[in-house]
Design goal:
Helix 1 crosses helix 18, helix 9 packs across helix 10 and helix 9 crosses helix 16. The protein is built from 18 helices and 15 strands. The chain is globular. The strands form two sheets. Strands 10-11-12-9-8-13-14-15 form an eight-stranded mixed sheet, sandwiched between helices. Strands 3-2-1-4-5-6-7 form a seven-stranded parallel sheet, sandwiched between helices. The termini are close together. By secondary structure, the chain is an alpha/beta fold. Strand 11 and strand 12 form a beta hairpin. Helix content is 40%, strand content 18%.
Length: 417
Amino acid sequence: MSIPVAKRPTVVITVNSPGEVAAWLAPVVVQLGQRLPSSRIVVVVPPCPFASGAEVDVIRKMEQVTEVIGPEDAFGLLFRRRRPDWGDRGLVLFLGGDPAFAGRLARRLGYPAAAYVERVAGALNFQQYFAAYPPVAEELRTRGKSNVHFVGNLMASAVKGRAEEVAVDLGVQPGETVLSFFPGSRPWQICHLVPFFLEMAQLLGQALVQHQLMIMSPFVEEEQLVNAASKPSSILGGITATCVERWEGVAGNKVVVLKTVQGHRVTAVWGARYELMKGSTLAVTIPGTNTAELGYLHVPTVVLVPLHRPEIIPLPGLIQWVGRIPRLGPVLKRRAVETYLRTHPYVALPNQWVGREIMPEYKGSFQAADVVCCLRALLEAPQRLESIRKQLAELAPTQDTASVMVELLIEQFGLRG
């Protein structure tokens, strides 16, 4: 017997940046779809300085999602005279964006609100809390919150996959070395990191590394990559390359082969993201969700923090807007970045979790050749790579976070039946 449309439970989820969409939203909507197949899942994407601009398109491809409301319409939910007709049964789940927006949206809809939180700041007005880490759960409780559940990190639920299928697609043989570059998901990251990574790949050559992959975010279009490869970065330098092949593999992943002027080839791949991570001998990335995902898959990773122009790095809160003040703004923002790095010694998420360096971090104003020296040292020391893998394996959670969290949501808010 089907549930009448008016009585379908509605789950409204707020989320904004690429990492939140891929690593938090994706596993949650899968679990909601399995456990509440009759539910209406609405995803709201408020404006965000960290957004790639492709979030709405990516979310629309998630088969469990009923409706997506993008940045241009998000605030209209709060101020339109007429309330959305989503029924009386539902809840608002905060996965990202501004906690105040999620709280106000819940009041507007007449729904209770729950939050998944990695840090306490700003997230103090919800009926239920799902904490990523034990210290966060404890701090919430010390602030008088009794409805707190420690569930673990949602990223761990997202990183399931099989490396074998993609290895066949790309011609990777057992025992061969695979170096994977992750150039980010935002336009400014692609513009600067793609030519920089191309130079690194060419300097390394294929004697030490048989396969050099550029793992592309689903938030990046093929033409963005090709355009970024056509000119050096104005900040990091690098080299150029042209697209010489495009094809689609049997595993469904899209492939673009880039060739530098000197004839060196780098293979860029879309799709099968976690499988590609899992099959990597070593990875190179920048701070963000990637570091956690690679950590949960036990992949040795070098994390780069280019500080050639720290004022262009997006920051949360007021300082992002202060940075736009002519002449003075960039100076203040540069100091803010320097202060953050001084007070936060680690940028890779696994390193932050344990308070020590497991993933090597390379910070500063460096050249491609400098980083290549670091990579060579690691690739020529298999015992060190194995040590990193073992340390990362110790961080693996004992439960499926998304499954546990969604079951708690259903129980706590009476969404089943």
